[in-house]
């Protein structure tokens, strides 16, 4: 983060800074993490700031929460360029890149209306295997339907609409 | 002969099997067929129970499984049609499967939702055989299709195949196409109206397997090259939008005249049946028709599968 970006939002004492999110996707990242703002966490979202690596980028700072590896890796679905900074006592103590897990479970729904995962009242979670990372292609383990990044983003947006 | 890699296996997709598995299955099926023809079939599955869980209406697949089980001395339990089950009372699929898992030694399932057989296999401890899940898989149909090709031609490799009809919603067509990726066809033509092209995941598998295939719209353009023509019905019940069905219904029809004019003498026509009007009745008595042989082969192939999966000494 450059000093000028740092000025936009103050440094956090303890928590997680998700940097290098593709511009415009910070809110989708929050949805993937299940952060709605109602948890009482202090969250800062910075959008469309200059980036040497990406041209423009978003940044999300979550105070008082450390992300698990599973959560970090889910972010790779829509922000493969993201970096995760774990902060303690105002210092970055760990820096890591996101990495897609081989199986994605329970984040996105299958787009096929006659997939068994869409049948009401069945105790099962949608599961996808990663076919390709860039461009993203996920294949439903149950019905074989292939979905892409646009489908994932669309669903995250719809989930956000419903919450509102 | 004990067959360690078969006992207790699920059969969800034709791609759960290797070419070697299928060759072994076909050897056993050929022996079953011989025994059926001699009228002497050992009761290899005496004392076993096979559950036939047909949540979706079916006649021939269900009767063929039932015949296969009974020929080998097994008992069958089950139902046909969702209204006949506790699902109509609001029970979920998982609970119905758990119940059958407690009663039977194997579960044969047909369901209109894609992925239902895999889900059932995750829930059940006993082996689950997919008898058709929505538009996705029909592995035992693909097994008997390949078996029939092998019986007719002595080989599955090196032939030119045409798969005609509904390649998008038809599970028999999809499973047959996937099955061919375990072999080395010389060429595969996917013949359908543009609306009914094979699904992306099926095409992805063809690409991955390096199969030489081409998507075409008109049978006439490729008929003369084909050794096997696999015809499927356009299934009204699979169309989410009836207007889409109206656009493609009756868009092709295989007649004796067409075959005599344009096909090689050795061409054989397959069809998973039932047919409506996509193959004219006058093809039935011609040298080209192989679909009744194909339908009959369902019993020995399913006998072979049941006995292998249930660990019978074949």
Description of the structure:
The complex is a heterodimer of chains A (164) and B (314). Chain A is α+β, with helices and mostly antiparallel strands and 164 residues long. Chain A is 21% helix and 34% strand. Chain A has 4 helices and 9 strands, in the order αβαββαββββββα. Chain A has helices spanning 3-8, 26-32, 69-75, 149-163, and strands at 15-22, 42-51, 55-63, 83-88, 91-97, 103-105, 127-132, 137-140, 146-148. The relative contact order of chain A is 0.16. Chain B is built from 11 helices and 9 strands. At the A-B interface, loops of A face helix 4 and helix 7 of B.
**Amino- and carboxy-terminal Cα gap of chain B:** 7 Å
- Can you tell me the overall shape of chain B? globular
Total of DSSP H or I helical runs spanning 4+ residues of chain B: 11
Mean model confidence by pLDDT of chain B: 93
Radius of gyration of chain B over alpha carbons?
Answer: 19 Å
Identify the most extensive interface between protein chains.
A-B, 21 and 21 residues
Q: Could you give a short account of the major beta sheet of chain B?
A: 5 strands, parallel
Overall mean confidence score, pLDDT of chain A: 88
Gyration radius of chain A, rounded: 17 Å
Helical fraction of chain B: 25-40%
Structural class of chain A: alpha+beta
Overall shape of chain A: it is: globular
Beta fraction of chain A = 25-35%
Question: What is the oligomeric state here?
Answer: heterodimer
What's the total count of β strands of chain B?
9
Per DSSP, the total helix count of chain A is 4
Subunit structure (chain A): Contains catalytic and regulatory chains.
Cofactor (chain A): Zn(2+)
Binding site for Zn(2+) (chain A): 110, 115, 140, 143
Keywords (chain A): Metal-binding, Pyrimidine biosynthesis, Zinc
């Amino acid at each position: 983060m450059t000093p000028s970006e740092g000025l936009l939002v103050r440094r956090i004492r303890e928590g997680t800074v998700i940097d290098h999110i593709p511009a415009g996707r910070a809110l989708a990242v929050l949805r993937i993490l299940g952060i709605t703002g109602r948890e009482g966490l202090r969250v800062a979202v910075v959008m469309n700031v200059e980036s040497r690596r990406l041209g423009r980028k978003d940044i999300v700072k979550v105070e008082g929460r450390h992300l698990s590896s599973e959560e970090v890796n889910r972010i790779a679905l829509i922000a493969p360029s993201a970096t995760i900074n774990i902060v303690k006592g105002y210092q970055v103590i760990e820096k890591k890149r996101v990495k897609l897990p081989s199986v994605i479970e329970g984040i996105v729904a299958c787009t096929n209306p006659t997939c068994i995962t869409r049948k009401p009242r069945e105790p099962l979670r949608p599961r996808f295997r990663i076919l390709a990372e860039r461009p993203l292609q996920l294949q439903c383990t149950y019905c074989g339907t292939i979905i892409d990044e646009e489908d994932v983003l669309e669903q995250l947006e719809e989930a956000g609409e419903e919450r509102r | 002969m004990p067959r360690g890699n078969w006992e207790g296996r699920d059969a969800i997709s034709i791609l759960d099997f290797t070419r070697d598995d299928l060759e072994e299955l076909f050897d056993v099926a050929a022996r079953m067929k011989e025994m059926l023809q001699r009228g002497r079939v050992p009761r290899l599955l005496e004392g076993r129970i096979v559950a036939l869980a047909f949540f979706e209406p079916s006649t021939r697949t269900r009767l063929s499984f039932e015949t296969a089980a009974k020929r080998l001395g097994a008992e069958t339990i089950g139902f046909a049609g969702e209204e006949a089950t506790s699902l109509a009372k609001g029970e979920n699929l998982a609970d119905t499967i758990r119940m059958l898992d407690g009663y039977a030694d194997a579960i044969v399932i047909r369901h209109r939702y894609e992925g239902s057989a895999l889900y059932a296999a995750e829930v059940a401890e006993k082996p689950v055989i997919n008898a058709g899940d929505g538009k996705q898989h029909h592995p035992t149909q693909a097994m008997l299709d390949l078996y029939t090709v092998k019986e007719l031609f002595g080989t599955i490799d090196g032939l030119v195949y045409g798969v005609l009809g509904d390649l998008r919603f038809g599970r028999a067509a999809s499973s047959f196409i996937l099955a061919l990726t375990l072999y080395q066809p010389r060429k595969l033509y996917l013949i359908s109206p543009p609306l009914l092209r094979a699904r992306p995941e099926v095409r992805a598998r063809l690409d991955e397997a390096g199969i030489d295939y081409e998507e075409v719209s008109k049978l006439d353009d490729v008929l003369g090259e084909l050794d096997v023509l696999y015809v499927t019905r356009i299934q009204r019940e699979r169309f989410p939008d009836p207007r889409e069905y109206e656009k493609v219904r009756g868009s092709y029809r295989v007649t004796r005249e067409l075959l005599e004019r344009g096909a090689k003498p050795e061409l054989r026509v397959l069809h998973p049946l039932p047919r409506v009007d996509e193959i004219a009745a006058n093809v039935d008595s011609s040298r080209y028709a192989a679909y009744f042989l194909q339908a009959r082969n369902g019993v020995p192939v399913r006998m072979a599968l049941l006995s292998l999966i249930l660990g019978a000494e074949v």
